[in-house]
Amino acid sequence: MIKDNEYVELAEYILFSQDKSSEGLDKKLNDLSLEFRKNKGIRDINKAIEKARNPKNGFYRTELEIDMLSVYLKEDVVKKKSKYKVGDRVKIVDYPPKGSAFTICSNPFETEMGQWLGKIMTVKQVQERCYIMKEDKGQWAWTASLIEKKVD
């Protein structure tokens, strides 16, 4: 199982922390750069705990319980905070990072997407793992690694 450290850390906090307050949970989410998904909250964390403690998974299997809870949290309850917001003006990198899908699949300067390298664009939509831009009319999905910085 591939583990996302922030989700595992959140699962451990939920299961073992002495601080069960909503303020403590909010602080932990913020420290891990996580936030609740739309229409989700503490009630949904309790549901995830119940799923993770399903008798079919066996009782008192702490590592399995942590793994299961981290998966349920990631898939249904919380998500990573977006670095950029709708309306932000951002600079696209001049050249994509080595090893990115952009450089592995092709020469970035010979693709239609390549015309946007080094340009300033406006975030039109924020999705789970990428950003949709206004200038390219939503044709491409831009990951955070392809965005250099926010500009004014």
Topology of helices and strands:
Blueprint: H1 5-16, H2 22-31, E1 34-36, H3 42-52, H4 62-77, E2 78-80, E3 89-92, H5 101-105, E4 120-126, E5 131-133, E6 141-142, E7 147-151
Antiparallel strand pairs: 1-2, 3-4, 3-7, 4-5, 5-6
Query: What is the chain-wise order of helices and strands?
Result: HHEHHEEHEEEE
Arithmetic mean of pLDDT: 84
CA-based gyration radius: 19 Å
Low-confidence stretches: none
Describe the structure.
- This protein has 152 residues and is of the alpha+beta class.
- The protein has two domains: 5-80, no CATH class; 89-151.
- The protein is 36% helix and 18% strand.
- It has five helices and seven strands.
- It has helices spanning 5-16, 22-31, 42-52, 62-77, 101-105; strands at 34-36, 78-80, 89-92, 120-126, 131-133, 141-142, 147-151.
- Strands 6-5-4-3-7 form a five-stranded antiparallel beta sheet, with no helix packed on it.
- Strand 5 and strand 6 (141-142) form a beta hairpin.
- The longest helix has 16 residues, at 62-77.
